[in-house]
Every structure is written in C-alpha cells, then in structure tokens.
Amino acid sequence: MEITFYGQNTLHILIKDTYVLVDPFISGNPLAKDQVDISKLKADYILLTHAHEDHVLDAEAIAKNTGATIVSNYEIAMYYQSKGIKVHPMNHGGKWNFDFGTVKYVNAIHTSSFADGSNGGQPGGFVIEGALKTIYIAGDTALTMDMKLIPMYTTLDLAILPIGDNFTMGVDDAIIASDFVECKEVLGVHYDTFGYIEIDHKKAKQKFEDAGKTLTLLEIGEKISLS
Ligand code: NI
Ligand code: MN
Predict the structure, then answer these.
(1) pLDDT at 130
(2) H helices of the chain, where?
C-alpha cells in the first residue's frame, strides 16, 4: 500500500493495482494547485469523508475524467449520482468488500453541507483493510470516544488524523486519538492550508515523540509505503 499526500485531506492510495483517491481538494488549494495536475490523476474509487468544499472540490471533475466510483454516505452519493457519476452509498457502521479491500464508514464529529447548501448527510471517516495493511482515515472530526470502538474490531497500521485545530482536532487531541485507536503511527493531515490551521511542524512532531508516537508530515506529492 502506497499513500501519496496532496494537501489538506487529499490522499492518493495505491492498493495492489487499484487507485483510491480520498477527499480531492487540489484546484482550490494554494499549496497544491500548481504542483498537481488533476487531469492526470488516476482513480478507480473516490472516497469522500464529508461534503465540505475542502474535501470534495475536485471530486466531480476527476470522477467524470476517470470514470471512478464515488464512495461516501448516502446523501453525498445521491448528490453525485444525480450528476451522472457512478456511486456506492454507505452509512455509518457499515462495511463493504470492494475489490481493493474492505471499507467501513465510521463516525466523525463535524458537519457536512455542500458549498451550494445541499444536504451532505453526516460526516464520517473510513477504516480501510487492504493488501495486508489497515488504515484509519479520520476525516474532519473532533476527538471522540467512538474512536475507541475501532481497535475492538481491527488492528491499525496507520492512523491518518487531522491536526490543524480550529475546525478539527489539534495536535494534543490527535495524540489522545492515537491512544483511543491504539495506533502509534500517525500521518497528520488538515493543516497549513489556511491561516486558521497553520501549525508548527517541529513542535507537533516533538509532542508526538514525547508521547511515544510517530507523527509523519509529508510534503505535497510525497508518499509513504506500508509494507
Ligand atoms: Ni470539514
Ligand atoms: Mn476540512
């Protein structure tokens, strides 16, 4: 499993030979837009955690370009189905065996309206079990006790957690979240894109290290391999 970071919560995950794109927000991201050509991005599936623009802005264009299937909550799936895009609707607590692995849509505490005011249902995160590795993509969320449920049914190799604060958890809560999900390996997301969520990278990494955990922060376009 290979995970490339394209800023905010945009993750391009290669599982065997399947491309899973998460929360594509590139053309509106000042940190990413000049570095990533969305017309060249491969995608078989596009997973959307919730409907906020900084998670879905490029989903329609990339889905139409690639023929990818959008996987999200029921309301978001219906929104894109009405635009002629292939969708797979899910809802909280449900899982499905896709060809690349099993996906479970899990709880997040946040909001989820589309920029045009359409109903984006309730926000979520994803637990993906694929190619022998298991990851948790929290999406935008507060620290929540529901995270404690995850290690009751799976063992995570990586937790992908928001750390930018203001709209989501910050670093201190993300450290507690990594306790709750029982995973010491954390990839930080949802930071630096806007003034509200700028963070001190060194300080953030040090705090995780002091707690006996590892925080990885990737440059735009940088990737990590789980093997
Ligand atoms: Ni959001
Ligand atoms: Mn967001």
Answers:
(1) 85
(2) 53-56, 59-66, 74-81, 150-153, 171-180, 201-210
Tens digits of residue pLDDT in 26-67: 999 999 999 999 999 999 999 999 999 999 999 999 999 999
User: Which pLDDT band, with edges at 50, 70 and 90, does 132 fall under?
Assistant: confident
Q: How far apart are alpha carbons 106 and 126 in whole angstroms?
A: 6
Sign of CA dihedral 113, 193, 140, 56: positive
pLDDT, position 62: 98
- CA dist., res. 74 & res. 77, Å (int): 5
> Which ligand sits nearest to residue 124's alpha carbon?
1
**C-alpha 206 to ligand 1 mean position (Å):** 26
Residue 216 in tokens: 């990885």
Burial of 113 (0-12, 13-18, 19+ CB in 10 A): middle
Q: Chain centroid to CA 128: how far?
A: 11
- pTM, two decimal places: 0.98
- Pick the ligand that lies closest to the CA of residue 162: 2
Task: State the burial class of residue 224 (Cβ atoms within 10 Å of its Cβ: 0-12, 13-18, 19+).
Answer: middle
